[in-house]
From TrEMBL:
It comes from Solanum verrucosum. Belongs to the PPR family. PCMP-H subfamily. The keyword Transferase does not apply. Gene3D superfamilies: Tetratricopeptide repeat domain. The keyword Transit peptide applies. This is DYW domain-containing protein. Residues 530-622 form the DYW domain. GO terms for biological process: RNA modification. Keywords: Repeat, Transit peptide. InterPro entries: DYW_dom (IPR032867), E_motif (IPR046848), PPR_At4g14850-like_plant (IPR046960), PPR_rpt (IPR002885), TPR-like_helical_dom_sf (IPR011990). It comes from the Eukaryota. PPR repeats lie at residues 82-112, 113-147, 214-248, 315-349. Pfam families: DYW_deaminase (PF14432), E_motif (PF20431), PPR (PF01535), PPR_1 (PF12854), PPR_2 (PF13041).
């Protein structure tokens, strides 16, 4: 304000002190009107901008207390009817998480703009109240308010959070009706909601019809494929992204690394890791966590630990990824050490941390240690054990031969038992020869997995070990009369950029004749060192000689032999299998690692087996 304005304002204040009611009095003199106009100009030019800046700063700092104070000043100066000001208040309360206050301001507005509706809807979505966001959108339509692409994309985000397929399809139709379907944000939100609802074909149609795509669009598609366990499609789509010239972001890279981890595709994972360093996302903690998980799932624990150690910033995700990776690869002592380091670094373990630690105790047969950790969950970290923790405890007890206690734990836990729990008990009964508990476990398994022939054969083998031939015959008859079938085992190995799959008795592989010849040579040398085929692990109802032949040609043996033929002499041989590795193949791999002096890594359905110099990391329990 200049000197003249200050003088007039002071005169106005003196006049107000003399007669406070003169402003509202119809008999005001002309000079008083002039002074009042100067005060109004002062308010609009000085006070209102100040209040706007203050409210925006409160929203930025999430300072609700000062924000409420500014709201009081707004009411004091009569700006509660100003649309721009009230929109700022709605935004400020939304950013502070006080949605009820934002709604009260919204409801008291004499007139609303598109910004008012969008801001409040966004507030509900950010605060995970998707139902209210959808109701507000319906009210918006009934009141005839205009919509924008931002409105539709926001409501689609609410549908994605609720997995609301029907509403999403309706909104898709609405977007076409109001001609906003070509908006890149609307299209991206549409394909994202379809992906989250498991409708990847719909998501791809939206993507394919888009005239304009940004990095978020591509990232959403890759993430969608991964979320729906379409890992090969995710990797192929990522290759398409590379050709498009769109820049990578940390979300895309994290998703494609997760796809490589799920498929144990180490070659593609290494290539993506190179892209990570080239683009500078190596320092991103979520990308680093995905890399740790990738290497751990591929059995490359040392590489996983290098990534973990080099991470500049560590959060609970990367700590858990590393602990889980060590547990998966039977590095039990390192799991417990890292568990303590995690807490010393100021991070609290969660449910999944304890699953890894209990799994490590299971690998080493540490019953007392397992019990301590199981009790520690609730006592020190207020975590209630879930079905996975109980499953680990069943494994721990079973490994040490405490099958009765394992059975009692299952029967008294506050959850319904899973097939894996009773399967663990049955496997332990076979090791320790407990027929009574084996029969109980088998009975439950026959109900939970009526089509799994392996349970019948395992029970039959337990009977056979006790020479109860009558029970063996009845179990075999029950299997024959049932519709249970054993899933056909297959193993695969990656050589360069191609995955080679083998089945038992494989005949279709182009190099199968050479594979069989090399395997026969290998078996001759191994048998001289004491290897002998364990026919009790073959589940086929055939003659013993035929069982020996089938055992010789198990899928993992064929995959190993092909890897031995094709991979460099210093490279580890990595084999993946869709079932649990049988006892004979486990024995074969131990002998093979000693004879060939190669590191062999087998990832079966349960865990990793690292074979070196005639021994396995699993400690003969899997």
């Amino acid at each position: 304000m200049n000197a003249l304005q200050r003088s007039k304002f002071c005169n106005l204040c003196n006049a107000r002190r003399r007669n406070l009611s003169s402003i509202a009095d119809a008999t005001l003199h002309k000079s008083d009107y002039e002074e009042h106009n100067v005060y109004g100009e002062y308010k609009n030019s000085i006070i209102l901008p100040y209040l706007h800046r203050a409210v925006q700063e409160c929203a930025k700092q999430r300072n609700a207390m000062t924000g409420k104070s500014m709201h009081t000043q707004i009411i004091k100066y009569g700006y509660e009817v100003d649309i721009l000001t009230t929109n700022m208040l709605i935004n400020m309360y939304s950013k502070c998480g006080i949605v009820d206050f934002a709604r009260k301001v919204f409801d008291e507005m004499p007139q609303r703009t598109l910004v008012s509706w969008n801001t409040l809807m966004g507030s509900y979505i950010q605060n995970r109240d998707e139902d209210e966001a959808l109701r507000l959108f319906v009210r918006m339509q009934r009141e005839g308010s205009q919509v924008s692409g931002f409105t539709v994309s926001g409501v689609l985000c609410a549908c994605a959070a609720k997995f609301a397929v029907l509403e999403s399809k309706q909104l898709h139709g609405f977007a076409i009706k109001v001609s906003v379907e070509s908006n890149v944000f609307v299209s991206t939100a549409l394909l994202d909601v379809y992906a989250k609802c498991g409708l990847m074909k719909y998501a791809f149609r939206v993507f394919d019809s888009m005239n304009e795509r940004n990095e978020v669009t591509w990232s959403s598609m890759v993430a969608g494929y991964v979320q729906n366990e379409l890992y090969e499609e995710a990797i192929m789509f990522f290759h398409r992204l590379q050709k498009s010239g769109i820049e990578h972001n940390q979300f895309t890279l994290s998703s494609v690394i997760s796809a490589c981890a799920a498929m144990a595709a180490l070659l593609e994972g290494n290539e993506t890791h190179a892209i990570v360093w080239k683009t500078g996302f190596g320092a991103n903690v979520y990308v680093a966590s995905s890399l740790v998980d990738l290497y751990a799932r591929c059995g490359s624990v040392d590489e996983a630990y290098i990534v973990f150690s080099n991470a500049e910033v560590k959060n609970d995700v990367i700590w858990n990824s590393m602990i889980s990776g060590l547990a998966r690869n039977a590095r039990s002592l390192e799991v417990m050490t890292l568990f303590e380091k995690m807490q010393l670094a100021g991070f609290y373990p969660n449910e999944w941390t304890y699953v890894s630690v209990l799994s490590a105790c299971s690998h080493m047969g540490l019953v007392d240690k397992g019990r301590i950790y199981f009790a520690k969950m609730k006592k020190e970290h207020n975590l209630s054990p879930n079905v996975y923790h109980y499953s680990c405890m069943v494994d721990i007890l079973g490994r040490k031969g405490l099958v009765e206690e394992a059975k009692d734990l299952i029967e008294n836990m506050p959850f319904a038992a899973t097939a894996s729990m009773w399967g663990s008990v049955l496997a332990s009964c076979r090791v320790y020869g407990n027929v009574e508990v084996a029969e109980i476990a088998a009975k439950h398994l026959f109900e939970l997995e009526p089509n799994n022939a392996g349970n019948h054969v395992l029970l039959s083998n337990i009977y056979a070990s006790k020479r109860r031939w009558g029970d063996v015959a009845s179990t075999r008859k029950l299997l024959k009369d049932s519709e249970a079938k054993k899933e056909r085992g297959k193993s695969w190995i990656q050589i360069k950029d191609k995955v080679h799959t083998f089945m038992v008795g494989e005949r279709n592989h182009p190099s199968i004749i050479e594979v069989y010849s090399r395997l026969d040579e290998l078996l001759v040398g191994m048998e001289k060192l004491g290897y002998k085929g364990e026919t009790e692990h073959d589940l086929h109802d055939v003659e013993v000689s035929r069982k020996h032949e089938l055992l010789r040609h198990h899928s993992e043996k064929l995959a190993f032999t092909y890897g031995l033929m094709c991979l460099p002499s210093t490279a580890p041989i990595r084999i993946m299998k869709n079932l649990r590795i049988c006892g004979d193949c486990h024995s074969f791999m131990k002998f093979a690692s000693k004879v060939t002096r190669r590191e062999i890594i087998v990832r079966d359905v349960n865990r990793f087996h690292h074979f070196t110099n005639g021994s396995c990391s699993c400690g003969e329990f899997w």
